[in-house]
């Protein structure tokens, strides 16, 4: 007689049927049954060096595939280490299933190593605010209902992370039946305000499109360009929206906010209508917008209603649902004979003058980097002054190829994200631009890439300090406590100790040669870029008041 399948069997089979090809995490006793079953069902296991990095890898995989990413950790600290990655996925609307272990239900109340119960570290409760759904599965016959609900939320309209906490004995419980429903993607559009939107655009004197991260997440790059061209409206990008449109599109007027250009910020302060596409309008985007210059009208396309109409003092016309789906519908149904072609300057030279420094300027390196790399490249950018230098100076040639999170802004996230994306798209050249501070947090993850032959090229900007924090604190408080690395890292030696190829660069020519060599080698590479410590990052827009 054939044995009934376990909960772990059903989960592994369902994930395989969902199209999941890889999982990311660090194994431990309480999560063993389901992880080993995933391997048995053909899902390759990528063992990480820290659970946070594994969570970021699953997020990078989800971003590139558009499908569910899977990250797991054992009970207790294995789960708490995943929390940062879960919050990052939530901030970026990335569908990641976080799976954590738990002691057997029959052993609840007995002190256990790496406790995940309500007696110590209640992971189901901890993950609740960091995900769209979090649940402890207490019985095997509850699994299918809870799993179906979690996956439908992760891959649903808003998209984002979910979490399941699986006790050991539940994973091994055998079920007579388990019905798993594979969700199908739906087009999510809002047509109620169609006429109001078109009318507002036609009536505006100086409209402006603000392209946010939502354009990149939904893949609405063609629709954005078509919208701008249809009405002849200038486009600016938020920090996270960088790359929503090619840098040399005649209607692109540059980045705004932290890492932005003065021309783009001038447009923010002189427009009577904003068409906001997938941006929360956080302080990183509107830090240079004066209160008296809020536009009269705001059209806000966003899948998440949390901040729609709540940030600016403007009459707001909301458009809920997927940005790409909505733009496609609007562009198809607009009457081209009745729309207004606005007068605007095209081919504006928004780039500013590069700094001249005694040593290597990061701004100058970023301004030429896109000319060095293949067109079919992905560039993941970590948080810090290097990130905002990239936002300001890097020229995105391929829309959607620049990935940066200025919202949750977790240092080190790009290291794992780049690895996960390379797993999902091995044919693309993948770069990660990170800093020495980020690299010292999660840089050991390059050993994961080496062991599994995932040839990501890491560019480590080493200025021997927490540069963004140092420059900001120095300006606003006159102090730099805790921002200097008294013993700076040697990124090349560190990389080589973990099996990667290392390149040390102090000049632009050395950097160009290193990039070419790294691309040609198709191996995991770390390029250490030693830049001028005194270079001022484009991050001095926000002020800190400690009075």
Description:
The protein is 35% helix and 17% strand. The model is unreliable at 543-547 (pLDDT under 50). With 547 residues, the chain is an alpha/beta fold. Helix 3 (51-65) runs parallel beside helix 5 (83-91), helix 3 (51-65) crosses helix 17 and helix 11 runs parallel beside helix 14 (323-333). It has 22 helices and 18 strands. Strands 2-1-3-4-6-5 form a 6-stranded parallel sheet, sandwiched between helices. Strands 9-8-7-10-11-12 form a 6-stranded parallel sheet, with helices on both faces.
> Could you say which structural class the secondary elements and strand pairing correspond to?
alpha/beta
Gyration radius (Cα, Å) is 24 Å
Q: Low-confidence segments, ≥5 residues, pLDDT <50?
A: 543-547
Average pLDDT, to the nearest integer?
A: 93
Strand content: 15-25%
Strand arrangement in the largest pleated sheet: 2-1-3-4-6-5
Largest sheet: 6 strands, parallel
In helices, the fraction of residues equals 25-40%
Distance between the termini: 75 Å
The outline comes out as: globular
**Total strand count, please?**
18
In DSSP terms, counting alpha (H) and pi (I) runs of 4 or more, how many helices? 22
């Amino acid at each position: 007689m054939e044995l009934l399948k376990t909960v772990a069997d059903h989960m592994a089979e369902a994930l395989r049927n969902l199209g999941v090809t890889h999982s990311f995490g660090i194994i431990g006793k309480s999560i063993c049954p389901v992880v080993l079953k995933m391997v048995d069902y053909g899902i390759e296991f990528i063992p990480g060096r820290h659970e946070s990095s594994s969570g970021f890898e699953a997020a990078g995989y989800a971003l590139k595939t558009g499908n569910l990413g899977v990250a797991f950790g054992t009970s207790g600290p294995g789960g708490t280490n995943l929390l940062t990655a879960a919050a990052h996925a939530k901030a970026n609307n990335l569908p990641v299933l976080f799976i954590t272990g738990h002691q057997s239900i029959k052993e609840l109340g007995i002190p256990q190593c790496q406790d995940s119960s309500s007696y110590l570290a209640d992971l189901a409760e901890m993950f609740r605010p960091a995900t769209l759904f979090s649940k402890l599965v207490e019985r095997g016959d509850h699994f299918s209902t809870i799993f179906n609900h979690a996956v439908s939320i992760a891959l649903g309209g808003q998209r984002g992370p979910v979490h399941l906490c699986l006790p050991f004995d539940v994973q091994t419980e055998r079920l007579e039946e388990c019905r798993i429903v594979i969700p199908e993607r739906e087009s999510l559009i809002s047509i109620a305000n169609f006429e109001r939107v078109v009318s507002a655009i036609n009536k505006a004197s100086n409209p402006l499109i603000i392209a946010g991260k939502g354009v990149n997440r939904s893949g609405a790059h063609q629709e954005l360009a078509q919208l701008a061209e249809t009405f002849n409206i200038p486009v600016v990008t938020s920090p996270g929206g960088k790359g929503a449109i090619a840098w040399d599109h005649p209607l692109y007027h540059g980045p705004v906010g932290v890492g932005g250009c003065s021309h783009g910020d001038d447009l923010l302060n002189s427009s009577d209508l904003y068409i906001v596409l997938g941006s929360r309008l956080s302080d990183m985007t509107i830090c240079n917008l004066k209160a008296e210059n809020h536009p009269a009208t705001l059209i806000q396309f966003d899948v998440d209603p949390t901040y729609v109409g709540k940030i600016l003092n403007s009459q707001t016309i909301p458009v809920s649902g997927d940005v790409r789906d909505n733009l496609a519908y609007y562009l198809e149904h607009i009457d081209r004979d009745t729309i207004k072609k606005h007068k605007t300057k095209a081919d504006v030279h928004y780039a500013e003058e590069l700094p001249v420094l005694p040593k290597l300027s990061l701004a100058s390196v970023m301004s030429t980097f896109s000319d060095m790399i293949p067109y079919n490249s992905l560039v993941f950018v970590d948080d810090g002054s290097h990130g905002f230098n990239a936002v300001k100076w890097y020229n995105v040639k391929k829309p959607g190829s620049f990935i940066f999170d200025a919202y949750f802004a977790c240092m080190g996230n790009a290291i794992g994200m780049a690895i996960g994306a390379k797993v999902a798209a091995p044919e693309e050249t993948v770069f990660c631009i990170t800093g020495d501070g980020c690299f010292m947090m999660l840089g050991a993850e390059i050993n994961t890439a080496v062991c599994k032959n995932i040839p990501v090229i890491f560019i480590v900007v080493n200025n021997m300090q927490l540069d963004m924090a140092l420059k900001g604190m120095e300006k606003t408080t006159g102090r730099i406590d805790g921002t200097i690395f008294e013993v700076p890292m040697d990124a090349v030696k560190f990389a080589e100790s973990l099996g990667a190829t290392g390149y040390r660069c102090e000049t632009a020519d050395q950097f160009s040669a290193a990039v070419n060599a790294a691309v040609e080698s198709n191996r995991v590479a770390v390029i250490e870029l030693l830049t001028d410590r005194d270079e001022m990052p484009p991050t001095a827009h926000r002020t800190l008041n400690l009075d």
